[in-house]
Every structure is written in structure tokens, then in C-alpha cells.
Amino acid sequence: MANKAGTLPPKFVAVYPGSFDPVTNGHLDIIRRAAANYPSLIVAVVANPSKKPLLSLQERVDLLRQVCAGIAHVEVDSFEGLLVDYVRRRKASLIIKGLRIVSDFEYEFSMALLNRRLRGGVDTMFLPASLEYAFISSSSVREVFSLGGDISEFVPPAVLRAMKRLDGSRLGLKKRTRRRGH
Ligand code: PNS
Known about the structure:
Order of helices and strands: EHEHEHEHEHH
Strand content: 15-25%
Strand order of the largest sheet: 3-2-1-4-5
CATH superfamily: HUPs
Largest sheet: 5 strands, parallel
Bound molecules: 4'-phosphopantetheine
CATH architecture: 3-Layer(aba) Sandwich
CATH class: Alpha Beta
Radius of gyration: 18 Å
Number of strands: 5
């Protein structure tokens, strides 16, 4: 059995897809646990998420590369188009998804069925979020941060630094107008 993604038989290569806008401690927990249990894991960042992302594709990929640097057999990549086509191109056969709350399940279950119908042989495996991360999502992190809340508990330090460097206008913050003197 070879030990590099792409040289392993498909049944040993899994893909963990997502928008990662930004990557959170919850994502990182899923990546660590999937990588500990699977010979090769590709974290695949979708180039065109359904909603306009806060971070560019390059920023999302770079942050993931930084936070995954110490985790064995993890590769970070990006993809466009159908996930199942990417999974096939990368000679993988399994999609990993994290489930946080019960309402995630309905959507993810139908996606898993759809993806299997689109490409027979591509299956999905769900990992339940660890309890301490079950309430964290990228969208809530973006919202809390843009409203001035503390996200340091929810994201890796590299992500916090990157968010703090963002121009306020990208976060939807209006420029402060200087008060006129009387
Ligand atoms: O982190 P997200 O936004 O929940 O990830 C969603 C993602 C990237 C897994 C999903 O949007 C996706 O698979 N996009 C690729 C396009 C595709 O294959 N669509 C068919 C299933 S809807």
C-alpha cells in the first residue's frame, strides 16, 4: 500500500469537501479525526461556494494549509464543478462530512444520496462533531466577528490573525465617519 494521495487505491483515499470560509476549530477536529482513521485525506476547498465567500479561494486554501501542516496524510486542494467528478479525478471513493446538529443531517443525507446517484461507488461517511464544537459554523464565526465579538475560541490562531487583518469593508463594516466639530 503506497502512502501518498493519488497512489493509493481509491478505497483508501477520502475527500473532506467544504467552503471553509473560514476553517474553524470544528473543521479542524473533523480533519484530525478523519486523518487518524483513514490512510489518506484530501481537504477540498470549493472554488465557487453557493454564497459569495468572505475569503478568496487562495486565502481559504492558504489558511487550511497552515492549520493542517502538522497533521499526517492530509493534503489541501481546491476544486470546481461537481464534487463527485473531483472525487473520481483524485482517485478517491469516499466523501467525509461532519455533522453538528440534527438539522445538518437532513441536508447532508440528501446530498449523500444525490452524490451516490450521480456517481455510483462514491459513498459518504459522517463524523459527528465533538460536543465542544457542535455549535460552531463558519457563518456564525463571520457574523460574531463582524459584530465585534470574540472568536478566538472558535478558530485556530492563524485564522484569527487573518480575520483581524481583513479590511472592514470586506466584513460589511461601514467606514467610521469622523464627527464634525461644531
Ligand atoms: O462547507 P459547505 O459550504 O457546507 O460545503 C458545501 C459543499 C462544497 C460540500 C457542496 O456545496 C458541494 O459539494 N459543492 C460542489 C458542487 C456539487 O457537487 N453539487 C452537487 C451537490 S449539491
